[in-house]
Amino acid sequence: MTFPFSRGQWLVALAVAGVVAVALYFLARPAALPPGFVSASGRLEATEVDVATKIAGRLVALKVREGDSVQAGDIVGEFDAVDVDAQLRAAQAQVLQAQETVREAHAGVRKSESDAVLAGRTLARSQELVQRGFVSGDRLDRDRSAQDGATAALSAARVRVAEAEAGVASAVARADSLRATVGETTLKAPITGRVLYRLAEPGEVLAAGGKALTLLDLGDVYINVFLPANDAGRITIGSEARIVADAWPDELVPAHVSFVSPSAQFTPREVETRNEREKLMFRVRLKVDPAWLQAKAQRINVGMPAVAWLRLDPAQAWPERFGKR
């Protein structure tokens, strides 16, 4: 078998290829940062919010699917409300009944007040007649007893008014509670975000607190990185940072430090070497700038690997390649 190139030509070609590979490696490798900066790898994450039902019931509709965007307040699901609607109508009827009872009680008070006034006048006339000797003392005693009875009846009538008004308040509270329960038969998105998981399907019966959806809050995107103690100790809350996602190597994502763990912990499992895993590190959270998120949140995919660049020395200026956002 013959070859189109001689052995010497093959060696020259291999040498050239090696030189090219080395050159490409150094060209592709990011330039080292000056002192006062540090970098670490992580993954973009976002706060997860569960959408759960407050009441037990059968899910009749779930209007969004995984990946859909929702706005805060959007109706994303509905539960069977027939039973609750019936209870609400019964409670509203009880309110009307209690209000009628109050009206009857007030009418009873007016009658008792009239009876008490009449008894008082009758007693006054009897007292005058007794003084003149026209009637006996027995008549005065009967009229005095009648006045006492009318006064007691008036007090009892006023108590019935108070009880009737309490009944109205109770019935109204019951109706308000059921009206709120009817409102809970619709699931509303608590935040503006994206559907991460669809956890239930129409027809399923969910217990109170049962989860139907999990949303990603795209207004709260962050990356957790791990730094050794000598670097983590120099990080200040609120300090500037930059994030470069693997998917957008040419775009700088502005961020700031929102949390530094007060205690050391092991590095995540993604670290490949055993020696690195055995080192205790401090977790640092970088929150992506809200203004950047507002403009480009739809580009965020949770789990995207990225590199974070942090400034340890506030007096140190960012290098030119990190100076623009």
Automatic annotation (TrEMBL):
CC terms in the record's Gene Ontology section: plasma membrane
Highest taxon listed in the record's lineage: Bacteria
Residue stretches in coiled coil: none
InterPro entries associated with the record: MdtA-like_BSH (IPR058625)
Positions of the Multidrug resistance protein MdtA-like barrel-sandwich hybrid domain: 48-212
Transmembrane intervals: none
Pfam families for this protein: BSH_RND (PF25917)
Protein name: HlyD family secretion protein
